[in-house]
Design a protein that fits this description.
It is a single chain. 6% of the residues lie in helices and 45% in strands. Strand 7 and strand 8 form a beta hairpin. It has 1 helix and 10 strands. By secondary structure, it is mainly beta. The protein has one domain.
Amino acid sequence: MWLLGHVRLTSQQAVIHGVFRDDAAAVFFDLSGNGENEIIGTHYASASAGNGNCLLYILKKENNRYKRISQSIYFDPSTQVYALEHKTNGYRDILVESLFNKNPVVYAYDKDTGMYEKKKE
């Protein structure tokens, strides 16, 4: 499933979820299959060092607030981000394509840290 394909939050949607930033994109998707959507998103102002990459955030709802569960995941917004069918520790893996690298990067949920991290091969 291709995520963040020009999906934009409206101010009203973002206020409901408490995640709004100008020029943001997000999707609400159940990565763990527990019936509660995580938020996978970015704000385009998060570009790193002028190279055009943006931070991908994965947020999980806990106690009526969203907590970040991703380490530094950078992606080019002109490429695709996928939620894979394969799960690690109960959460779908995330695949991030790159314009400069033929091999996409896969991120998996690490139950010990409670974070998505680059998958070890």
